[in-house]
From TrEMBL:
InterPro entries linked: Beta-lactam/transpept (IPR050515), Beta-lactam/transpept-like (IPR012338), PBP_dimer (IPR005311), PBP_dimer_sf (IPR036138), PCN-bd_Tpept (IPR001460)
Gene3D superfamilies the record matches: 3.30.450.330, DD-peptidase/beta-lactamase superfamily, Penicillin-binding protein 2a (Domain 2)
Main location: membrane
Positions of region (Disordered): 278-299
Protein name: Penicillin-binding protein 2
Keyword flag Repressor: no
All copies of domain Penicillin-binding protein dimerisation, residue ranges: 87-223
Domain of life: Bacteria
Localization per Swiss-Prot or TrEMBL: Membrane
PANTHER family in the cross-refs: PEPTIDOGLYCAN D,D-TRANSPEPTIDASE, PEPTIDOGLYCAN D,D-TRANSPEPTIDASE FTSI
Keywords noted in UniProt: Carboxypeptidase, Hydrolase, Membrane, Protease, Transmembrane, Transmembrane helix
Species for this entry: Parasedimentitalea maritima
Ranges that cross the membrane: 49-69
């Protein structure tokens, strides 16, 4: 930098020549230099203030933007996890309609080893094999004495097992904290709950994920930390579920059936109060899916929603209800039932000879295949299909467990007049017992479709009307007579006025055709019949008993007694008091003397 001198010689000489004081020149130059320095300093300070101001503006803008994002986003809470781990470990509880625990989390530990830190690998392997009998001693010893630096031993252990391992005293055996899913009631409601397993995991934590049932269906809700204090509330009643399971298991054993299912449903809200599928399993030790054989023989198979069967004569009441709703017949209309009823090379017969004609009411009471086929001919295939569609019989049920979507009905490839006739008495169309529960609920509640649900509801959830109230009332009277004087006479429960319909369908072979000695026996019922509150479906797979010296497989001998026993057990638990059945009052005409 070139600096101007304060006393330039040329100016000094000129000033002396003129008689001026040379010191004034130095003072003036010094003043100018100070002014120049001050101007540069001021410019530098202003630049710094400008940069600082821009920084504060950006900072406040970012804070405002963040506040705006927080104000418009959904509230969330921090994810609770184990120390030092980013794996979510929280999961909300599952409770029944009374708040009783069905599934919860349990603090436990995992067990792993650092083989290089083991003091006595052989002794540790022997001790572990004694504590955990399912461990392979040779395999664990090989892992401990090899080159591995890390070995998983158990993903979850009990407090007693942890103490036993701790007593071994080997520093190479280590524990990791984690949470596991606990089902305190064991196998109770196993098919509804489904089960859970570990997803992402490390030595300090493990992610619990649902693998079946409501655990899988509502996995995102249960894993959301914001719902940790709000359990998932189901429509199940724990006491009713326990009683239903006990009765159904006993009935399955007595009737020599290979499997069974029952569904108890509120006809107004659609709440499933109890749903049982046997055989079942313990979700605390969920078995692996089968890799061979018939999947329906596995205890994991949920017969209530995955079991798609021809449900036999239980469908006849739908045919009668639709025919009455269309104005084609009424309960006393006489129908020709002379048989066999032939259609091409096919013929339809009745189980017994019921004469030449029956009223619509007697067709249901006697369970005449020919009679319902005649009604189906009047209805027509197209109208029948539309009616069953409105009852939800042609799509998978909306029941909120993950397996329900797999229970899609099996429809005839060509819904012809012959299909309409066979479907009218429950053959040619395969549905699940859950479909049947929804269909019978529509009759019981006065004609409205109601969707089955596993979630607790706050009140009636009636859907669109599928039949008139008069047709539904007439159908209920017929179902009551089926119990009092028809094929379901073993279904009477004193004080609870049961109404229902039996259904016995031959079981199809995997290769085609039907077995001669294997059936699906179903009893679809409602109670009390004059003012139904609940629908109960009981289905037995391949039942067979010896009664009065004969082998019996029909639903009237197998499914009906089981359902009657179940109603007698659970009706008091539901708060229903026994009562005298109301009767119609005889008309009295007053005349003058």
């Amino acid at each position: 930098m070139i600096r101007t001198p304060l006393r330039p010689l040329a100016r000094i000489l000129a000033a002396r020549a003129k008689g001026e004081n040379p010191d004034n020149i130095e003072k003036e130059n010094l003043r100018q230099r100070h002014a120049e320095i001050q101007g540069k300093s001021r410019q530098r300070s202003e630049g710094r203030l400008l940069v600082l101001g821009a920084f504060f503006i950006c900072a406040y803008a970012m804070i405002g933007l963040r506040m705006g994002m927080m104000a418009t986003s959904e509230p969330t809470e921090p994810v609770a996890s184990a120390s030092g781990s980013a794996i979510a470990a929280q999961r909300a509880d599952i409770v029944d309609r009374e708040g009783r625990i069905l599934a919860t989390n349990f603090d436990t530990y995992s067990l792993y080893a650092h083989p290089q830190q083991l003091i006595d690998a052989e002794a540790s392997a022997t001790a572990l094999a004694q504590i955990f009998p399912d461990l392979d001693h040779a395999r664990i010893l090989k892992d401990f004495t090899g080159k591995r630096k890390f070995v998983w031993i158990k993903k979850k252990i009990s407090p007693e097992q942890k103490q036993a391992v701790h007593d071994i005293g080997d520093p190479g055996l280590l524990f990791g904290p984690r949470e596991m899913r606990l089902y305190p009631n064991g196998s109770l409601a196993a098919h509804v709950l489904g089960g859970a397993s570990f997803g992402k995991e490390d030595v300090d934590a493990a992610e619990v994920i649902g693998v079946a049932g409501v655990e899988r269906q509502f996995d995102s809700y249960l894993r959301d930390p914001a719902n940790g204090a709000e359990p998932l509330e189901l429509s199940l009643d724990l006491t009713v579920q326990a009683a239903a399971e006990r009765v159904l298991y006993g009935g399955m054993r007595l009737m020599n059936a290979k499997g069974a299912t029952s569904i108890l449903m509120d006809v107004h809200t659609g709440e499933v109060i109890s749903v049982v599928s046997l055989p079942d399993f313990d979700p605390n030790e969920r078995p692996r899916p089968p890799v061979s054989g018939d999947p329906s023989d596995s205890p994991l198979f949920n017969r209530s929603v995955q079991g798609v069967y021809e449900l036999g004569s239980t469908f006849k009441i739908f045919t009668a209800a639709q025919a009455m709703d269309l104005g084609l017949v009424n309960a006393s209309t006489i129908v020709d039932i002379r048989g066999p009823l032939r259609w091409g090379r096919f013929s339809i017969r009745d189980f017994h000879n019921y004469g030449n004609s029956l009223s619509v009411e007697r067709i249901i009471i006697k369970s005449s295949n020919i009679g319902t086929a005649r009604l189906a001919q009047q209805i027509g295939a197209e109208r029948q299909r539309d009616f069953l569609s409105r009852l939800g019989m042609l799509e998978a049920t909306p029941f909120e467990i993950s397996e329900a979507s797999g229970g899609r009905p099996l429809l005839p490839p060509n819904w012809s007049e012959l299909s309409a006739m066979t479907i009218s008495y429950g053959h040619g169309l395969s549905t699940s017992p859950m479909h049947l529960a929804a269909g019978y609920s529509a009759i019981a509640n006065g004609g409205h479709y109601v969707s089955p649900t596993i979630l607790k509801q706050n009140g009636p959830q009636l859907g669109p009307r599928v039949m008139s109230e008069d047709s539904a009332a007439a159908s209920r009277r017929m179902l009551r007579q089926v119990v009092t004087e028809g094929t379901a006479s073993f279904g009477e429960v004193a004080g609870y006025q049961v109404g229902g319909k039996t259904g016995t369908a031959d079981k199809p072979k995997p290769s085609g055709g039907y077995y001669d000695n294997k059936v699906i026996a179903t009893f679809a019922s409602m109670f009390p019949a004059h003012d139904p509150k609940y629908v109960l479906i009981v289905t037995l797979d391949e039942p067979s008993i010896i009664a009065y010296g004969e082998e019996r497989r029909t639903a009237g001998w197998t499914a009906v007694p089981v359902a009657a026993e179940m109603i007698g057990r659970i009706a008091p638990l539901l708060g229903l008091r026994p009562q005298v059945e109301p009767v119609s009052v005889t008309d009295i005409t007053l005349t003058s003397n």
